[in-house]
From TrEMBL:
Residues 29-669 form the Aminoacyl-tRNA synthetase class Ia domain. Belongs to the class-I aminoacyl-tRNA synthetase family. IleS type 1 subfamily. Zn(2+) binds at residues 924, 927, 940, 943. Catalyzes the attachment of isoleucine to tRNA(Ile). As IleRS can inadvertently accommodate and process structurally similar amino acids such as valine, to avoid such errors it has two additional distinct tRNA(Ile)-dependent editing activities. One activity is designated as 'pretransfer' editing and involves the hydrolysis of activated Val-AMP. The other activity is designated 'posttransfer' editing and involves deacylation of mischarged Val-tRNA(Ile). Its main location: cytoplasm. This is Isoleucine--tRNA ligase. Signal peptide: none annotated. It comes from Phaeospirillum tilakii. Its cofactor is Zn(2+). Residues 713-864 form the Methionyl/Valyl/Leucyl/Isoleucyl-tRNA synthetase anticodon-binding domain. Monomer.
Length: 955
């Protein structure tokens, strides 16, 4: 019987589809992992190994995940999986931040929208009821976010996550606060803090965003009443400020002792201006020209005055003589030296309102100046503020933008008093609330602080930073600069939802009660009932016998939510609820904004209570922008939703984007970038598919020992050893984009475009027992297993799919495997150098054949049998190499000598010239090579042997 040659070719066969169908595949794999108990099996497999603990920074449970969440959690998952497969016990417990303004604000929206539970304000309902609403809201979103995180392929202890609102967590948070109370670090003080008049609470730096804002600016004249120099008699000191609303709180003027000032006379003033001809003003010498321009007046310098000579000068407030002042501004305004005064803008003088600025407050305290209270929590002036009582310092206009409505009143009042020199507008970066998006003010309020100095917290934190690894390294300098200059930690908030500052203040002394027994009772109650116990229990429950509750004031302020999250190391890593965890964490990983957020608060909390950082290393990633480098916003229509990407293209596409991005800087994403990721994914998938197909029917009996492998196969294994070294270095450095680029290049270029092409003929057409075919399949088997394992942390779904296609199992998983330990013998740099040169020669031949194909003189390279004229060095290089196989031609001839001038060459490849001659003979219908040995209608000798072997096996 005649055998059809085509039926005897070993074509690749696999059920691994070319089209991934990830949106349908991935949920099935998630169900499988849940069914086989993958997380628990990972823990059992890793029991006794060295631990690697990536402690999860808690996201807020208040909405669907955004692309930044996806980046963060996928990167964490990649690192955890990588460490697990490198032989560590990499335990990952996810968590959520549940307290604080973001969640409370959502509940308040119900009341602001028209009432809930019959109330139109949260203040109209019981606080415990309101807190329970917040708790239920957070719990609902935890469930939603958990599913969204799992859909991204994140392997974690999802059945036992941590949250900051459990009884256990709240009891440990208050216990941690108690440590600061008992060692004297926690104190109550009145200081200017960033305050939201919309949310009516203090905010931490980590809750602040900076946006452009238009402010009214004023130049104000302070009449001198007590001059330090005769020349200052009757003069006016000019200040410039962007916050006219702070003028009622002015109590001093700051100058630079090392600067030079000028006494100037107004020689000309426009009729519409506020300057008066003949009046004398004091301003910084270097800014005279600028002030003249700003005011529209002509100024003549009368005298130059060293800044230090201004000491002792006293002015009166510019509103002292306002008809409605009624003595409200009848106080001295001294000139004080300040090292924070600058010379780049303004007048060289800074108006000091100690209740509205950090520098102002410190300067006022240093000179025993009373700190006035001028602005109420809602942003209106107190009733005792002369001229402006009840007016608002901030309001939202009809256009949605915020402005200071009192600014016009201040300008009018100053103008009436003759103390305004000029006014204008400026657009500048200004602090805003990250929740309400409203501008903030500095407001002096009684708050609870943790001292940076009382127990040496600042020094401890800086020392801890020196012992911490930062990736990128500049992160240490960034957070270090913040620690060096930061004020005491304001930990109190005027809110309802969170852990209360469970402290009693003795009314007689005004000091907090520092009693370990009282704090122990609070901790015990919180552990049993949660922090609601502070609101539902009588004070006597905590104060104990021997103390009269009437002698104490119970504090109901709420702890800064950053203190909550700063304590997660205590109630997650140390509490014993997760026995597999340990303290300190190996790694904290969040966005770069957390240098002033979670990294910062965790550092301070841990250094204050344990003397060191709660982490050994800190990794930061950038923010996600659109393809044009813009911040994502709904108004721009450039938001990329992770849920939409997953539903349309699959989570592995997002994971591929993370793996291939340099996350040390800001990242970009959008339709075109995702399209590129899909193309890269397709090439990687096709590599796996080809390997699976080529291994159809492969058994261990086919394997060829390493020492018997041809050079080409040993070169492939050398490349694997190089990549393995890169993988381990990338895992150590937490930097994967370079590795992934090399891995993709290996699959697309080294394998698909070279090795697979070269060995395709042997795989398809050699006999089953051919040493060359067996060697190739031996390496293919190693390649597939190695690539599946290497890709598993990155493309967790696709790697699992390919692994199961090769190793069918009811309960197996590539994620239970370790990265392979590749033999040292695979590394052969000399062999790699030789094959790099051979591929250069191949490049010349390919170029010559491409030119022939373009001229339509050949179709397939198998129609050619090129003549290579080479140097003696190249001849030695190619000795023993099957040239036709490497060039994918039917034949090839090599000679040393002088090349035909018309031969094809490449300038960068010396000693190689190619004449692309046609192959002689007939085309073999089985292997398609054109060979002289092929008779009409027949096959070549090799194919004849292969067909005979197939026929013999069939019989």
């Amino acid at each position: 019987m005649t055998v059809d040659p085509k039926t005897t070719v070993f074509l690749p066969r696999t059920e691994f589809p070319m089209k991934a169908g990830l949106p349908a595949l991935e949920p099935r794999l998630l169900e499988r992992w849940a069914r086989i108990g993958l997380f628990d099996r990972l823990r059992a497999t890793a029991k006794g190994r060295e631990k690697f603990i990536l402690h999860d920074g808690p996201p807020y449970a208040n909405g669907h995940l955004h692309i930044g969440h996806a980046l963060n959690k996928i990167l964490k998952d990649v690192i955890v999986r990588t460490r697990q497969m490198l032989g560590k016990d990499a335990v990952y417990v996810p968590g959520w931040d549940c307290h604080g303004l973001p969640i409370e604000w959502k509940i308040e929206e119900k009341y602001r929208a028209g009432g809930a539970n019959g109330a139109k304000s949260k203040d109209e309902i019981d606080i415990v009821t309101f807190r329970e609403e917040c708790r239920q809201f957070a719990a609902g979103w935890i469930g939603i976010q958990r599913e969204e995180f799992q859909r991204l392929g994140i392997t974690a202890d999802w059945t036992h996550p941590y949250t900051t609102m459990t009884n256990r967590a709240e009891s440990i948070i208050v216990a941690e606060l108690g440590k600061f109370l008992l060692d004297g670090s926690l104190y109550k003080g009145a200081k200017p803090v960033l305050w939201s008049v919309v949310e009516k609470t203090a905010l931490a730096e980590a809750e602040v965003e900076y946006h452009d804002h238009t402010s009214i600016t004023i130049w104000v004249k302070f009449p001198v009443v007590t001059p330090s120099l005769p020349a200052l008699e009757g003069a006016k000191v000019v200040i410039w400020t962007t916050t006219p609303w702070t003028m009622p709180g002015n109590r001093a003027i700051a100058y630079g002792a090392d600067f030079e000032y000028a006494l100037v006379e107004v020689t000309e003033a426009p009729a519409s201006g506020l300057a008066q001809v003949g009046e004398r003003l004091v301003i910084l010498a270097d800014l005279v020209e600028q002030v003249a321009k700003d005011s529209g007046a002509a100024l003549r310098v009368i005298e130059r005055i060293p800044g230090a000579r201004l000491a002792g000068t006293i002015c009166h407030h510019p509103l002292k003589h306002h008809p409605e002042a009624k003595g409200g501004y009848d106080f001295a305004v001294p000139l004080l030296a300040g090292d924070f005064v600058t010379t780049d803008t303004g007048t060289g003088f800074v108006h000091i309102a100690p209740g509205h600025g950090e520098d102002d407050w410190h300067l006022g305290k240093a000179h025993n100046i009373a700190i006035p209270d001028t602005v109420q929590p809602d942003g209106t002036y107190y009733s005792h503020v002369a001229v402006f009582a009840g007016q608002s310092v901030l309001a939202q206009g009809k256009n949605g933008k915020y402005y200071s409505p009192v600014a016009k009143a201040v300008i009018a009042a100053m103008t009436e008093c003759g103390t305004l020199l000029a006014h204008g507008k400026i657009e500048h970066s200004y602090p805003h609330s990250w929740r309400s998006k409203a501008p903030l003010i500095f407001r002096n309020t009684p708050q609870w602080f943790i001292s940076m100095e009382t127990t040496g917290l600042r020094a401890k934190a800086l020392s801890a930073l020196a012992d911490t690894r930062f990736v990128p390294a500049q992160g240490r300098n960034r957070i270090g600069a913040m620690i060096e200059s930061r004020p005491d930690w304001c930990v109190s908030r005027q809110r309802a939802w969170g852990v209360p500052i469970a402290v009693f203040v003795e009314k007689k002394s005004g000091q907090p009660l520092r009693d370990p027994a009282v704090m122990a009772r609070v901790v015990e109650a919180f552990a049993a009932e949660g922090s609601d116990a502070w609101f539902t229990s009588p004070p006597a429950r905590f104060l104990g016998e021997g103390r009269d509750p009437a002698d104490y004031e119970q504090v109901f302020d709420i702890l800064d939510v950053w203190f909550d999250s700063g304590c997660t190391h205590a109630f997650v890593l140390e509490s014993g609820d997760w026995p597999a965890l340990s303290w300190p964490a190996s790694l904290y990983l969040e966005g770069s904004d957390q240098h002033r957020g979670w990294f910062h608060s965790s550092l301070l909390e841990s250094c204050g209570t344990r003397g060191r950082a709660p982490y050994d290393a800190v990794l930061t990633h950038g923010f996600v922008l659109d393809e044009a480098g813009r911040k994502m916003s709904k108004s721009l229509g450039n938001v990329v939703s992770p849920q939409e990407v997953v539903d349309a293209q699959g989570a592995d596409i997002l994971r591929l984007w993370v793996a291939g991005s340099d996350y040390s800087d800001d990242l970009r994403i959008g339709p075109e970038i995702l399209k590129t990721q899909v193309d890269i994914y397709r090439r990687l998938r096709n590599t796996l598919r080809y390997l699976l197909g080529a291994l159809d029917g492969f058994t261990p009996a086919e394997r060829v020992p390493f020492e018997q492998l041809p050079e080409l196969e040993r070169w492939v294994l050398h490349r694997l050893s190089e990549l393995d070294q890169g993988l381990r270095a990338a895992a150590e450095d937490f930097t994967f984009h370079g590795l992934f680029a090399e891995l993709h290049n290996f699959c697309a270029v080294d394998l698909s475009a070279f090795y697979f092409d070269v060995r395709k003929d042997a795989l398809y057409c050699d006999t089953a027992e051919s040493p060359r075919r067996r060697a190739a399949r031996t390496v293919f088997d190693l390649l597939l297993d190695t690539l599946c394992k290497w890709l598993a942390p990155f493309l967790c779904f696709t790697a699992e799919e390919a692994w199961l296609a090769r190793h069918p199992s009811a309960d197996g998983s590539v994620h239970l495997e370790a990265f392979p330990d590749l033999p040292a013998s695979w590394r052969d740099d000399a062999l790699a150098a030789r094959w790099a040169k051979i591929r250069e020669v191949r490049r010349v031949v390919t170029g010559a054949l491409e030119r022939e194909r373009a001229a339509k003189r050949i179709g397939s390279a198998l129609q050619a049998s090129p003549l290579l004229t080479v140097s003696a060095e190249v001849q030695t290089l190619l000795d023993g190499v099957d040239l036709a196989e490497i060039f994918l031609t039917s034949g090839a001839e090599l000679r040393v000598g002088t090349a035909d001038p018309a031969a094809f060459t490449l300038p960068e490849v010396a000693g190689v010239a190619v004449e692309p001659r046609l192959a002689e003979g007939e085309k073999c219908p089985r292997c398609w090579k054109v060979l002289p040995e092929v008779a009409a209608g027949g096959v070549c000798a090799r194919c004849g042997s292969a067909m005979a072997a197939v026929a013999a096996e069939a019989n």
